[in-house]
Amino acid sequence: ELQQKAEETELLKMELQMLETERVRLSLVEEKLMDVLQLLQQLRDLNISKRALGKILLSTLESCRDPQPGKAHLFEVLDTLYHELTTCELLESQPLEKAQSRQSLSNPLVISC
Fold this sequence. Notes:
Blueprint: H1 2-45, H2 50-63, H3 73-86, H4 89-93, H5 96-105
Coiled coil: 2-46
InterPro entries: CCD48
Keywords: Coiled coil
């Protein structure tokens, strides 16, 4: 009985460790998603065309067509989309102060369709 309790305890420890790992992974995905949403909000405020945004999205999906081994595909797509958005000419030409002041005036996560 003592041996069985020890095995159950070990299994629970392993399960707890797996849950903690998953929590950290989800936290990283959430942070990257927040960054992407903030960039999308900035681009919407700059009146980016739907065509340009579509090109960015298609470029992202094209570059993530074959998942990298050992890397979560969802995180890879979000990370690639983030980098594609940061290289957008509209964001690069916008003064930093203007972007920050716009961001502080409204909720950066509200994106109306």
